[in-house]
Design goal:
heterotrimer; A alpha/beta; B alpha/beta; C alpha/beta; A: alpha/beta; seven-stranded mixed β-sheet; four-stranded antiparallel β-sheet; 11 helices; B: alpha/beta; Rossmann fold; four-stranded parallel β-sheet; 4 helices; 41% helix; 16% strand; globular
Chain lengths: 355, 141, 290
């Protein structure tokens, strides 16, 4: 990983050049409906972006897994039907200034997207996208990226990371893609003073988040699995509405439902749409049986999947500590609190107990 | 391709449908854009029918039943009237033009009235143009 | 709130109820609490941050809560209307729960905030509240606070929409509904959305497309609002739950106003008053009928 320097002027020029080349540039932007909120939206000029204000309302996952995604188109013919597949290559795009928690999520989800089946739509978009993240300064008491092995300065998933310093940014170039995007805009010489500034900014940011939660040890995945039947799940799930808002804003949640939709008598599409294991009917079988029939099982599933099942399968915690779920939950659920409660059980003997 | 409005009419069997039938047998000239869905009573009209008609490509909707006091089931259209009133207010608030939706009472003997409802609704919808919500799939796409 | 804590302690230790559903301080702010152990009664609080409508948890579909046993629920005047609605529509019986009503002087829109009640921070639904002293209760607690500040945001927005042309209104709602991702948090947080199977979940026949597309998002939103007509208690939980910040409270208020102007009905905490769309008058207005 090499350091470069990018001035404000050159970043502005980069955005303008990309826009002129019709490459979509996405950045955190103040929303139309609520100036206090930030969303990831396309920009034409650097001035439209608002970096470092607050974590965007939605994660960046929709640029790889849209909320609704056409999988194929079909057309009824006289004697059957015709299927038209959708292209799996995507137009090049740049995501500028996303938070490290949103960016790391893409790499974590890559694992399941390439597991028993390679998801070509996901990877087509991944390959077409260059991610230039920014050091996070937006932490509050709810985030815990350092606890899950990441951090406000983590470059995981980024092609390059910008660290704000005097006059511009120290650029940590991570991949060849990042180098290729930025090479005509950065200077190679980075003064010691600026490097120090960047180091200091990273260290200060880390310290702030580390104060929220100690690092989660590898053994937690296994102990959480052993506590599958713990009565604590029942108590914790009581206030959960099962609304799935958490999954919708989560950078790592990726479950989807597949539906066929006809547009008229002859034409239709097959889509996949965001879904959530928290909804009542997520696991309803055709027979009517529902193995996760109450919110207790559903809530437990979410936490076990993120902190036990996904780690045991892919060696990754399916959470980047962004805190969105806890901030927007209408029922006041708090993932850090849940994790904390089960960690304090980790050293105790596993408890059984029927619901 | 010349655009022609698609209008769906939800009508009650006993009054409006019969009135429409009378309009037909009397050879009254009517625009051909209306697709009639026959129901037992105007009260059978679930507001979802209207909402779904617009979702599925209708440019205009007609809902019609017996005059109040004449309902075949005595009170159906009284309940329906309240439901339609609120539906009417909601559709307007959400930006569906008043002229796209017609609520009417047409009795079994009012063939002429049915002709008027059909032709006037078609003319109003033609003037407004096709209905499409014009939203984008996802604000960031 | 000491009287609340003491009452909860009494109800639980005497076995009158098995759970008290109230409010507590969570890691981020005020949140719903489920107290089953009398010793935990001291967790219960009531202050201006208690904005959630706890009647949502009384829905019999929430089996894991119903399994706890007979409940006592803490309600403000607006929440009591939702309890009345559930009783009116026979989802719960009056004697199946203990209602602890609290006199209320308005709540913050955001339960995480610690701000004072001002015209900007108070929930728009609180202004001109007529039920600061609820009438549906088994126990009535607290001193009557002063009237809440009036937050005009919602009525101003409704007035602005009413002045718009149809095309402008369409554009206004598109701008918001484009963000809808069909998570249905609005439905889950709503105390009056208690259907075991929501119409939106039905595939055969399919009423509204499942996908978050402009046409389906409109269909979903309009359908839910119509199903709430005359039943909605204007708690604004739908708007608070929406992760996309869609102003669903505008629709709740607009339809409630429409019902009130046409039929003189306001959401009430009297379960004996029938829902307005379940009754009629022969002289109901029909100016909209051609």
């Amino acid at each position: 990983m090499t350091n470069r320097f990018l001035s404000h002027e050159n970043l502005s020029k980069l955005v303008a050049d990309l826009a002129a080349a019709k490459t979509r540039v996405i950045a955190p932007v103040r929303t139309n409906d609520d100036a206090a909120q930030i969303d990831y939206l396309p920009i034409q000029k650097l001035e439209e972006a608002s970096f470092g204000v607050r974590l965007p309302r939605r994660s960046a996952k929709e640029f790889f897994l849209p909320a609704t995604d056409v999988l194929l188109k079909y057309r009824y013919e006289k004697d059957g039907f015709e299927i038209e597949s959708v292209p799996t290559t995507a137009k090049p795009q740049v995501i500028l200034g996303p938070s490290p928690c949103d960016v790391a999520a893409t790499e974590i989800v890559d694992k399941v997207m390439n597991w028993d089946y390679r998801d070509e739509l996901w990877f087509g978009r991944r390959e077409a996208t260059t991610i230039v993240s920014m050091l996070c300064s937006m932490m509050d008491a709810t985030c815990f990226c350092t606890a899950v092995g990441l951090g406000p300065d983590a470059v995981r998933g980024s092609d390059a990371m910008l660290v704000p310093v005097e006059g511009g940014y120290v650029v940590r170039v991570v991949t060849a893609k990042g180098e290729s995007l930025l090479k005509n805009y950065v200077t190679d010489q980075v003064s010691d003073a600026l490097n120090t500034q960047a180091e200091k900014a990273g260290a200060e940011a880390r310290k702030k988040v580390e104060a929220n939660m100690p690092a989660i040890p590898a053994a937690f995945a296994e102990s959480l699995g052993r506590n599958f039947d713990h009565p604590l799940w029942k108590t914790m799930a009581l206030r959960c509405h099962g609304c799935g808002a958490c999954a919708s804003v989560c950078p790592t949640c990726h479950c989807f439902d597949i539906v066929d939709e006809h547009n008229d008598a002859e034409h239709g599409v097959r889509r996949r749409n965001w879904d959530s294991c928290q909804t009542a009917r997520f696991t309803v079988h055709t027979s009517g049986h529902n193995p996760r029939g109450s919110q207790t099982e559903r809530f437990r599933q979410r936490v076990e999947h993120k902190f036990s099942i996904y780690p045991s399968r892919f060696g990754e915690i399916l959470c980047t500590g962004c805190g969105r779920c806890s901030r927007i939950c209408p029922g006041g659920m708090n993932l850090a609190e849940v994790v904390g409660e089960f960690r304090s059980l980790a050293t105790a003997a596993p408890e059984g107990g029927a619901q | 391709m010349d655009w022609s409005p698609k209008i769906v009419a939800f009508v009650c069997n006993w009054c409006t449908y019969t009135g429409a039938d009378l309009a037909g047998t009397s050879r009254l000239k009517m625009d051909p854009n209306v697709r009639v869905v026959r129901l037992t009573c105007s009260s059978r009209v679930n507001p979802l029918f209207v909402i779904k008609a617009f979702e599925r490509g209708a440019d205009g909707v007609i809902v019609s039943g017996c005059h109040t006091g004449d309902c075949h089931y005595s009170t159906g259209n009284y309940y329906a009237r309240r439901r339609f009133a609120i539906l009417h207010d909601l559709l307007q608030f959400m930006g569906i033009e008043d002229d796209r939706v017609t609520f009417s009472w047409v009795s079994a003997s009012e063939g002429n009235k049915w002709q008027q409802v059909v032709n006037e609704t078609t003319a109003r919808v033609k003037a407004l143009g096709a209905y499409h919500p014009q939203g984008k799939v996802g604000q960031a796409q | 709130m000491k009287s609340l804590q003491e009452l909860a302690f009494k109800l639980l230790s005497e076995g009158t109820v098995k759970v008290v559903i109230g409010y507590e301080q969570g890691p981020l702010g005020v949140r719903p609490a489920f107290i089953t152990d009398p010793a935990q009664s001291s967790k219960l609080i009531f202050d201006r941050r208690c904005t959630q409508n706890l009647a949502t948890y009384l829905n019999p579909r929430r089996k894991h809560i119903a399994a706890l046993g007979k409940a006592a629920v803490v309600v403000k005047g607006c929440d009591a209307r939702a309890v009345a609605g559930l009783i009116r529509e026979q989802q719960i019986t009056r004697d199946s729960l203990v209602i602890i009503a609290v006199r209320c002087g308005g709540v913050l829109e955001d339960p995480i905030s610690t701000a004072e009640l001002t015209a900007e921070t108070t929930s728009p639904r609180c202004g001109h509240c007529q039920v600061r002293e609820p009438k549906l209760y088994d126990h009535l607690l607290g001193e009557l606070p002063p009237e809440p500040p009036v937050n005009p945001r919602r009525s101003e927005q409704i007035a602005a929409i009413e002045k718009m042309t149809a095309a402008e209104r369409m554009e206004y709602w598109n701008q918001h509904l484009d963000r809808c991702i069909r998570c249905h948090a609005c439905r889950e947080a709503c105390p009056m959305c208690f259907c075991v199977e929501c119409r939106a979940e039905r595939a055969l026949p399919q009423w509204i497309d499942f996908s978050p597309t402009p046409r389906a998002n409109r269909g979903w939103t309009m359908m839910r609002v119509m199903h709430q007509a005359g039943r909605c208690v204007d708690c604004m939980e739908c708007e608070r739950a929406c992760p996309e910040g869609i102003p669903l409270g505008l629709l709740a208020r607009y339809i409630a106003d429409s019902v009130e102007q046409r039929y003189g009905y306001k959401a009430t905490d009297d379960p004996g008053v029938p829902a307005p769309l379940g009754v009629f008058r022969t002289d109901d207005g029909e100016e909209f009928i051609r």
